[in-house]
Fold these 3 entries.
Entry 1:
Amino acid sequence: MVGSGASGVHFALTALQRGHQVLLLDVGYERPKVPLPDATFDGLKSGLDDPVRYFLGTQWDGVTYPKGGEGSFYQHPPSKSYVFHRPATFPVSSDAINPHFTFARGGFAEAWTAGVYPFTDDDLAAFPFGYEELRPHYLEVARRIGIAAEHDDLAQFMPFDAEYLPPLDLDSHSRHLLGVYARKRMQLHQRLGFFLGRSRVATLSVAYGGRKECSSLGRCLWGCPHDAIYRPSVTLAECATYPGFTYRPGVMVKRFDYDVGGNVTGFEAASIDGKGTERHEADVFVLAAGGLPTSKIYLESLRAKTGHVGSLPGLMDNRQIHIPFLTPAMIGRDAPSSSYQFHHLAFGMPQANPAHYVHGQITTLKAAGIHPIVQSIPLDLRTSLRLFQAFRAGLGVANINLHDSRRSDSHVTLQPDSTSGLSRLILRYASDPAEAHLIDSSIATVKRALRSMGSFVPPGMTRILPKGWSVHYTGTLPMQEAEAEHTCRPNGRVNGFLNLYVADGAAFPFLPAKNLTFTLMANAVRIAEAIP
Amino acid sequence: MTEPIATELLDREVAVFTRYLIGTTASAYICACYRDGHSTIPYRGLGTTTKFDPMLLTIARTGQAGVRLADAYARWFLPSGVLRQKLVLLLAILENAPTSSAATTRATLGSRTAVLAKICGATASGVAAIVAGLLILGPLHLVTTLVMPKHPSLDTHD
Ligand SMILES: Cc1cc2nc3c(=O)[nH]c(=O)nc-3n(C[C@H](O)[C@H](O)[C@H](O)COP(=O)(O)OP(=O)(O)OC[C@H]3O[C@@H](n4cnc5c(N)ncnc54)[C@H](O)[C@@H]3O)c2cc1C
Ligand code: SF4
């Protein structure tokens, strides 16, 4: 199999538990050593020899320069650059989508914010199975990774039947918002259709499975030194305890070979240090390289066999919108940086079509790089800094996620280059014309809800992020009942192939607004359970 | 990438700008970081330098009043110009350096009324700085743009 991301490791662990032998091929860039594991966010600044280079990077790529009001309010810190490094041997061009790639050991979820939300039957309406079929696999993944959650108003939009851990300690701003919401909830439900609750997070509120609980170091964005935030490397380490498991990092899988009967016979992989290629044979082949690399391996394999360059329609990604806000009631209070940094709150806004449910998360400002925020205030930097310090305890961002659906004008293809021998991955994305209305109405509702809860939304600061930002690339080899070219059977087997499976987001036929990784992991377990 | 400029000029900048931003002197570590980070400022890459940038920078280096005026003006009229990029780089350094981190990142504590009064005062003085910048630097900017043939090289003037 290919890929050690969230999908790959859960597929592998289930396959191993069922007695299979697993060879996992991976590029697998490794996380650098985490410095001073017991230091808090502020403690790192006083304890490290060179804290500026740690936080801003030796190449200074952690500095966010003014760009005229575009982009997000934060960027990935240098300590996570290994997650987003793309080798030159993987060229990409894209149109109307700004994709990210990972070739890290553990994939994107080495840098995720750990929001985990099960899909409902409505979310799964386009899938060839429903919630009941996924349920045992959600339960299994929850048992493996540890999820902190609370039963609240959001339970009606996301089943609450796994064994969850107690919720994390709330920061004071999130507690304040939840308190105001509790007083106004009927009004917010009836007038705005806005529901607030606790984020479900794969972060430990109590020690679990050999990992320590969150001790409020405030280093989440830079990488939790205690793995209180789940990352797939934890499960990869568990796989390594099985004698039938072999992990082979340092290789980029190029393609698979197959015979005329649709029997895949081997993976061809190139060493990432350029020292040659290798071939691996097996009975069953599994693609879990992430939605886009999986599509590339598939297209490249067909091209090598037929000489024809195919195209995979249906590329999806969630639209994300960031709405910064200020809660005046918090002004004058402290905002300790020793606090869990990511979102504590989530919200839901049901729509007339239940599959178009709008999902979001609220992150209040605790430990953070502040220069990207300060420079966005429209005054001189000194005054902006004073204002930021005064507002600090009341600052937050609501992050809205919208669903996406498969369309033929959003697709993935290849552009072979005979000189270099490398194929370029080509992505073309066309937004759903109906999305503009949903963007407007969602922004309006969230702003009104925030205002009802006593928060102020500064004009002109809402950011509709470009497609590609949410990193939820899906839909190019969809699971469906009907047999058709470039699709998968409901069990993840690729149509036209006897022993080739897709265990990642490429196989999703629809992309609900809720963050998908819990479902990626549960679906990977489901597919592994059904492998003969 | 930018061309190397005289170390004395960079040290002058870091001293004036640090006092301007957080009211303290810059430590040797902050100066060293600024010198190193400065060589990676991407303003050339962003295509944002204008004929007026070197003049704004010269004014900013003169001292507290100069940098405040130049910065307030730049925030609106040259928001991604040379001066703003240098100030943002320094702010990023200050928030992470041990001696300046607390002064840069801490929240203002106190009663809501007192903090709101501080907010009002700061906003009023920030707006006044923009107006002053507009009155003093606006005409200079206009003249520079219209009269000067080509902006001097940033090697010698930044
Ligand atoms: C900042 C950030 C925050 C996020 N927050 C959330 C969140 O809160 N909730 C949520 O649900 N999701 C979140 N996500 C998304 C989530 O991380 C991804 O959905 C998930 O990690 C995808 O897992 P995957 O295993 O399918 O693929 P990937 O993570 O893409 O893993 C792919 C794996 O395949 C390997 N690989 C790729 N190509 C090849 C090749 N050709 N040969 C060999 N190996 C290869 C890579 O090395 C990697 O190990 C976030 C992502 C980011 C970046
Ligand atoms: S606050 Fe973040 S970095 Fe600190 S222990 Fe908790 S999860 Fe880890």
Entry 2:
Amino acid sequence: MENNNLTIKLKVWRQENAGAKGKFVDYTIDDVNPDMSFLEMLDELNEELIKKDDLPIEFDNDCREGICGMCGMVINGTAHGPKSGTTTCEVRMRQFKDGETILIEPWRARPFPVIKDLVVDRSAFDRIMVAGGYIDVKTGSAPDAHTVLVPKENADLAMDMAACIGCGACVAACPNASASLFVGAKVSQFALLPQGQPEATKRVEAMVAQMDEEGFGACSNHGECEAVCPKNISILAIARMRREYWKASVH
Amino acid sequence: MKLDSKIPGGPLAEKWDKHKFDMKVVNPKNKRKFTVLVVGTGLAGASAAASMAELGYHVKSFCIQDSPRRAHSIGAQGGINAAKNYPNDGDSIWRLFYDTIKGGDYRSREANVYRLAQVSNNIIDQTVAQGVPYQREYGGLLANRSFGGALVSRTFYARGQTGQQLLLGAYSALMAQVHSGMVEILPRREMVELVMINDQARGIIVRNLINGEFERYVGDAVVLATGGYAQVYFLSTNAMNSNASAIWRAHKKGALFGNPCYVQIHPTCIPRSGDYQSKLTLMSESLRNDGRVWVPKKKGDKRPPNEIPEDERDYYLERKYPTFGNMVPRDVASRNAKMVCDEGRGVGKTGLAVYLDFRDAIKEFGREVIEEKYGNLFEMYKMITDEDGYQVPMRIYPAPHYTMGGLWVDYNLMSTIPGLHVIGEANFSDHGANRLGASALMQGLADGYFVLPYTIGNYLGGTKLEKVSTDHEAFKEAEAEAKAKYDKLLSIKGSKTVKEFHQEIGSIMWNYVGMSRNAEGLKKALEEIPRLREEFWQNVKIAGSEDSLNKNLEFAGRVADYLEFGELMAQDALHREESCGGHFREEHQTEEGEALRDDENFTYVAAWEFKGLGKKWELHKEPLEFENVTLTQRSYK
Ligand SMILES: Cc1cc2nc3c(=O)[nH]c(=O)nc-3n(C[C@H](O)[C@H](O)[C@H](O)COP(=O)(O)OP(=O)(O)OC[C@H]3O[C@@H](n4cnc5c(N)ncnc54)[C@H](O)[C@@H]3O)c2cc1C
Ligand code: FES
């Protein structure tokens, strides 16, 4: 059978720990099956490195199906790689050409410090959620599910917003390292639902304040976030967040 | 050791209410004095941690991932069951109970399953109130669909991302409690040892995955919500960090392990394509609502599927099971796929696949309807296989997916170690020998929101707990034990990688302790596993050092545990001389090749006690008593 396997050259960001100075290191990997996922290609490279007593490249990942939000690399300058609407773990090697050089970097944003190699610290997102990313409803206190009707259109829009996987690509792609798409998506999900109304004011104010405190920049409508979002979350989320914020401030 | 399941007396439907009344209640002011350590932030762990914190307990919540929101539960696609009967198709708590008991092939406890069905409705109420955007009808009401093993429509869903939405709901509740100061989250931590003081679970040792340091945490009770062990097969639908280590290390400290051989092999996964493959991708079983499963009638028929005429196709599920058709339970669907492939009628390059065909559904409802229902699954299929499921039938094959076995727990979800509670997929409790679709999310959230928060109070309120700190000798010993293990791993410097060992144990398990099992194969596994384990401890090669982020070392620790645990799975499978649910022993089948139970001799839970490596585990039996349902040959014809 014909062999379509690829030879791929990589330039990978290696950094020993948060304090260390990082650098790009070159690797060549042969015999890459085009059906492989990008992460499987890195797995193979790591196996080779381990066998040569070299340190494997550290990168975060878990579900490998585009839903947990754990993976994230800047591939050839684009967060999560060239194809829109996908996570790093969903990138397939058939998207690359034989002999191609691929540049791999971690998310680069001040609020996401590098821990090692391609692994970054995204705990700032958790702290934003702690500030107000919830509807306060204690276990056992909920009324029957059908007492609240939600028009299908709103439920669908809320679902579009709720699809955010918290990967941080929006921040990595934004020239200002803004987290507005992430926060806007959560604020919008709840703003679209009747259950989210009572705490709407408090929520948007608290989340935005925490976002600022974490050092994320302001949104200046570049739209890079929307372009890289693996879940295709629309930048309308940010507009809605602004509206909610404005509503809150005139309260 | 005498196993006491602590099932309350009285009529089935009243047991839980009565038990709630009889249990000790901790005075609200005293709750603050207790700390509960919750390992795992999936549906079970996050819901439990949040609910206990709301009650006033201090909670510390641990997970491996960088955020609690990323637990493996996030990947669940299809939906969650509840007995709401909103579609008015005759559903009830009783019917959900009955379907689940029957689906589990009569190898689970009536009382547990009934309670699960009872609280299922509260879960839907709770999660709707949290803002989970379930699928709705145009009138604004919640939509339902059907899943395998049921003739009613009781599954609630949020597109193909139900697990994600439910987990984000539980995570939000957890974050609210972090806000109120009742929960501390400790991500990027792996529990490596359980700490016992006065024979009670009083703490854990975790490895900080960023700097490699061992940390000690003390509590009044420990909850393991660490998920299932399907990764023992190397290739499974589970997330990469799913593991058996937390429950395994607790097992070695004395917690009995229930029914380890009960594994669910899911019928609708994308087939394997090469050795490099790191995981298998599941496509929701809801696809079987509209997709038709078939293989060519002729052996070795290599024609492209669309060129095979209708009368040369064998829709084998519809043929053999006219009532349930393509919606038979997972174990039945998987086994039948294996059978037709073993007959040489499998399709695709490897011959290890069957077709899932949407041609007729598209003809009947139009492509748009199918796209709206399953669009994301078709996209995923395309991305992985480079094929268009709307144009050519999808190829599917079974893959390890869910583990019904787990640490043995009583009705209060406590293991045989006092204070050690186990919830979610990590325990053995409610699914018997086979789990029905959309009921793991239900069980995880039932345990976490509506069962454990009550039963833990009963334990804390009724137990004498000495005041202890992390300076206690037991903490020092447990930490030293954990550290010694990782030191040893790094010192071996052999020549075979962790992944190679994982692949090897995985293929032993798949070949001999997989979809169908026989005594000869199981005995072979029992010989090969200890041999491989020995080789591992002499020849594994691990990169890097202990004192920094080192995923290779993390995996080494987990693979070391599979190399012990696999042996117990094989022992359990060998001892169970019957077929039931996901456990199919070739020696025990009906003439038509269906699972043949032996109710007279095997209507019990097998709970195994660790006696030391190299020794046989000791079997304890918890007899299963059926007072409300009659055991029948499970039939989906
Ligand atoms: C692809 C897929 C689809 C599914 N779809 C459905 C569905 O539609 N409906 C349904 O009902 N079920 C479904 N399931 C099954 C269901 O998702 C799981 O059974 C369930 O989510 C398990 O939840 P859990 O809370 O028990 O554990 P998990 O979600 O697995 O969480 C385990 C947690 O424990 C932590 N952990 C593990 N080990 C350690 C350790 N040593 N130290 C510290 N932390 C640790 C992890 O970090 C994680 O936080 C699906 C499963 C898969 C794989
Ligand atoms: S690994 Fe989960 S989204 Fe990529």
Entry 3:
Amino acid sequence: MNFDLSEEQQMVQNSIREFAQNEIAPIAREYDEAEKFPRRQLDGLAELGLLGMIIPEEYGGAGLDAISYAVALEEIARADASVAVIVSVTNSVCCYPILSFGTEVQKQKYLVPLAKGEKLGAFCLSEPQAGSDATNLKTRAVEDGDFYVLNGTKAWVSNGAQAEVFIVMAATGERDGKKEITAFIVEASTPGFTVSSHEHKMGQRASQTNEMSLTDVRVPKANVLGGVGNGMRVAFGSLDNGRIGVASLSNGIAQAALDEATKYSKDRTAFGKPIAEFQAIQHKLADMATETEAARLLTFRAAAMKDANYKQTGVYASMAKLFASENANRVCADAIQIHGGNGYSRHYNVEKYYRDARITTIYEGTSEIQRIVISRGILKD
Amino acid sequence: MATETEAARLLTFRAAAMKDANYKQTGVYASMAKLFASENANRVCADAIQIHGGNGYSRHYNVEKYYRDARITTIYEGTSEIQRIVISRGILKD
Ligand SMILES: Cc1cc2nc3c(=O)[nH]c(=O)nc-3n(C[C@H](O)[C@H](O)[C@H](O)COP(=O)(O)OP(=O)(O)OC[C@H]3O[C@@H](n4cnc5c(N)ncnc54)[C@H](O)[C@@H]3O)c2cc1C
Ligand SMILES: Cc1cc2nc3c(=O)[nH]c(=O)nc-3n(C[C@H](O)[C@H](O)[C@H](O)COP(=O)(O)OP(=O)(O)OC[C@H]3O[C@@H](n4cnc5c(N)ncnc54)[C@H](O)[C@@H]3O)c2cc1C
């Protein structure tokens, strides 16, 4: 069993770390406060090939393996989780499904510009009344000649206001009393497809999250992705990368919080000595480091299984996502504790990390849903 | 239980791989593995008893023994508190 990153993976780690610490970390606080979209930083990441990291070079991507993807997202999230989630969404739930299920024409038209970072992607599954219970969606697509006509409302669309290519899930009918769901590639400029509101969030505020409405949106039949009725296969096909992505993002936040807490504990004195000399603080740091390392190993393990096309990748991706996201929340809470009152102030980064971490146990499947996936994997054996 | 046992196993294999490769930081990683795996064994055995209900408390069921067997693991070969001292020293000296 090899636990060391390959030379190429280390190169990815070093180059992204340098870019993220120099170009992203310094603006993270300001962009968070202003809910400002990090356009320039994304252009820089596009130049490094990161908007199509897991896409083969022939389609304009960087052709990286899943472990490099995990390493890169962790480094970006260490600097700013908002930027990491923008990158994760366009890669894992827009580019990847088109790579897996798209026709050659769809790949040339949509995947190539996405992977090159000329266009940004988004994914519309959730609705106001359908989150974890995603198959209960209400958006409908009705056939009309060479088109489908879509009507409905999509909630929580990451990158909604900036993306140019969307994957939209809609019901095309019913089969055996169940909704038949189909995936569509929809261009932002299609008439009737609009951003209906902007969510003001607790954290990850530089990443915009929007409600989108579809009113008589005409989508050519050629833009059906993966065949009529295969929508949930398309959605489930992107889960592994999505979950490995959020796990990596969580590890980046946790590592950043641990680093800040370690530094602070050496600088801050109380009762005549640095608080790092108190065992209560030392033991917190030890637990934070141990569990963050465990989270990272689970994430790399899931990524290695993804690279090797293992059947059980799904269960491992859920384990990684569950453990890493819950860990990020614990670590950030402890990092604030170690900072004392300063940790509650916007002058210190840990305050932001704590807010950024809070969503990680919810999106890409809540912790409760991950536990369902994992327990099903165990129980069926 | 499954997730954390898998995490414990990976930490253990990671420390073993570092030992094989003669890494300087093996000590800190061995302590992480020992701390996390031993505390995890105790949590998992407690939950396994819980899942068995009253039967879990009976000597007729294996989990009763596992629970007792696990209890020493956070103590011998350096208690959990001592592992945390080793790990935090590793972090704080960087
Ligand atoms: C910042 C952000 C970005 C997002 N980006 C996207 C995006 O780009 N595209 C997209 O499609 N969606 C996106 N989402 C939506 C996200 O995936 C959903 O919020 C998530 O799936 C949870 O759904 P929900 O919010 O409707 O909660 P609900 O499903 O209503 O869950 C509420 C609670 O009930 C629990 N619960 C639900 N079902 C069960 C069950 N069977 N057993 C036990 N507990 C259960 C949940 O775990 C949770 O604790 C985003 C959300 C946020 C906040
Ligand atoms: C089944 C079994 C097999 C064993 N096998 C061997 C063997 O083969 N060879 C051998 O040499 N030993 C062996 N031991 C001994 C074992 O290593 C010791 O029990 C262990 O090191 C703890 O020492 P102690 O029992 O004296 O507890 P103490 O050191 O007195 O500790 C009591 C409590 O105080 C805490 N504590 C102590 N120092 C600190 C500190 N600085 N900061 C915070 N908390 C602290 C401990 O964590 C513990 O919670 C064995 C023990 C058992 C039970």
